[in-house]
Amino acid sequence: MTFTLPKPCLCLVTDRSATSGDLVERVALAVQGGVDLVQLREKDLSGGQLLRLAESLLKAIGGSASLIVNERADVAVAAGAQGVQLGEDGLPVSAARMTVGSGALVGRSVHSVQAATQAEAEGADFLVVGTMFASRSHPGEAPAGPGLMRQISEKCRLPLIGIGGITPENAPEVIEAGASGVAVISNILAAPDPKAAAEKLKEAICEAWRVFGKPAGASPV
């Protein structure tokens, strides 16, 4: 089975420190609100802990969104997740593909045009591009802004997801610059109502996609 991502795509990156509530419950609520892709990124957990969390998330999501695991292709396979997200200096795409299989999603995080074109050449399915705006997860780091997204979109044909300080107010700028979606952490996980926060953000990117993108609908990546 080959997994697909919708366009526009709303991705939620997990971070237990960003929420005071139960992570699995809040992710499930966010999926109800329109999250399409969940990236499990909990770097402090052991392999066994990460596997158990991935299994819990998959059960809570119930097939309503795809789950990818940050860096740990082995955990993704063991849990039955839909793919893996690689850091810019992480595993080669080919190595991850050997582990997760040809039908799974392999994403790469990039911060430059050169890294994006290299990831595309290596066979990545989609790219997470950052940092768009100032964010809690990258304090003190100067954001590249939507300009980087525009530069990459002009050189790369892969679906692009913008990350970093994304809100319903600035998400349309990222879509206009060439993104197929956005990824967030705090905007949803730290919100009083994760479902409502996801709904608001999804509405913003869907409207932007109608104006700046192509006809919405699932598209193979």
Explain what the structure shows.
By secondary structure, the chain is α/β, with parallel strands linked by helices. The protein has a single domain, classed as Aldolase class I (TIM Barrel), CATH 3.20.20. It contains nine helices and ten strands. The chain has helices at 23-32, 47-61, 73-79, 93-100, 113-122, 146-155, 171-176, 186-189, 194-212; strands spanning 4-7, 9-13, 37-40, 66-70, 83-86, 105-110, 126-129, 160-163, 181-184, 217-220. Strands 2-3-4-5-6-7-8-9 form an eight-stranded parallel β-barrel, surrounded by seven helices. It has a two-stranded antiparallel sheet with strand order 1-10. Helix 1 packs parallel to helix 2 (47-61) and helix 2 (47-61) crosses helix 3. It is globular, with a radius of gyration of 16 Å.
Keywords:
single chain, 221 residues, alpha/beta, TIM Barrel, 9 helices, disordered C terminus
Kindly estimate the percentage of residues that lie in beta strands according to DSSP: 15-25%
As for the number of domains, it is: 1
Radius of gyration: 16 Å
Cα(first) to Cα(last) distance is: 13 Å
| Shape descriptor | globular
CATH topology: TIM Barrel
Order of helices and strands: EEHEHEHEHEHEHEHEHHE
